[in-house]
Write a structure and sequence with these properties.
about 220 residues, 5-stranded antiparallel beta sheet, about 20% strand, 2 domains, 9 helices, alpha+beta
């Protein structure tokens, strides 16, 4: 399917704006002024997502935090717009960058609970990080036998200690454990760490083939209510 036919999804704040007070709405097109190569993580493109679920899971992206810089407010009151892109796109398996985006209509943004987000983060980390101690903790969290903050903190410290040997694999695990520890204490931190865990796991898997993050999100939402 060509980019002109496929639909993509754009997040804005509650006023329909993104960073820089750029206004979006029905049938609004914006072009990015950057003329060089697009690079994710830099101000070189317009950001969007492949699916509303991906938009919801990654809505802590810095490109979305828009006007107030009140993170709690932004992540509780986002709007999602279905649209289309024109021209080249780039992607890291989580977010998509393009030069031109047209918002067509507003669509509901699926709700993903903190428990689901942490579960997604752990499932992504388990795709690339197989240390027995982490796996033991992850199994306990997933089956509900040990969801204590202390256990999550220990798993995070263990993963951090092995970063030199495992790189992004261990980063994914540490982020997943951090999200679990923050789940019932720091709303925005749990959001951020869960998304970062999935992104780090995807980067680690990128040495071979990327993780299908959307498939993991869909499966977790089906199983975890």
């Amino acid at each position: 399917m060509s980019n002109s036919l496929k639909r993509y999804y754009k997040l804005t704040d509650s006023n329909g704006k993104t960073r820089g007070s750029i206004q979006w709405g029905e049938n609004i097109t914006h072009h990015h002024a950057w003329r060089g190569e697009m690079v994710l993580g830099y101000d070189t493109c317009i950001y969007c997502y492949s699916d509303p679920l991906m938009a919801s899971f990654f809505l802590m992206e810095s490109c979305f935090i828009a006007i107030t810089e009140d993170i709690e407010e932004d992540i509780k009151n986002p709007r999602c717009w279905e649209g289309k892109v024109k021209g080249e796109i780039i992607s890291d398996g989580s977010i998509i960058g393009c030069k031109e985006f047209t918002t067509i209509r507003e669509v509901p943004l699926p709700e993903i609970s903190i428990e689901q987000r942490v579960t997604i983060a752990i499932e992504c980390a388990l795709k690339v990080y197989w240390e027995p101690e982490f796996n033991k903790w992850a199994s306990g969290w997933l089956d509900g036998t040990d969801r204590s903050a202390a256990a999550a903190r220990a798993a995070s410290y263990f993963a951090i200690a092995t970063v030199a040997a495992h790189g992004a694999d261990a980063v994914a695990a540490a982020r997943a454990a951090n999200a679990a520890e923050a789940a019932y204490a720091s709303y925005s931190t749990a959001f951020a760490d869960a998304a970062d865990a999935a992104r780090a796991a995807n980067a680690a898997a990128g040495r071979g083939s990327n993780i299908d993050i959307l498939a993991i999100i869909q499966e977790v939402i089906r199983k975890v209510k």
